Hints:
Layout: E1 8-11, E2 14-21, E3 26-29, E4 37-42, H1 47-62, H2 68-85
Parallel strand pairs: 2-4
Antiparallel strand pairs: 1-2, 3-4
Helix pairs in contact: 1-2
Amino acid sequence: MASNGMKTHRFNGKQYRIILADDLDGFCETSEAVGYCWLTVNRSLSKRIGLETVIHEALHACDPSASEKKVKTIAADIARFLWRLGYRKRKEE
């Protein structure tokens, strides 16, 4: 579950479980064979890397057919843009 209490999020019409982990940076599973999809993000990434990772995994959720190279490039561009605008993860309360 995400630190702000978010348990799920809908991407492109599919419901995803949101999981905060400590053992991998990020992962998006879109297979519905198990009955649900999930998006995992490492809770202890730096603010900058965390932003890029969340965007990266969200892009995979929105378009599972997109290549890793394309997702990586787009996520880096969006993260850099948002970072320059001042977007940051809020401190845990």
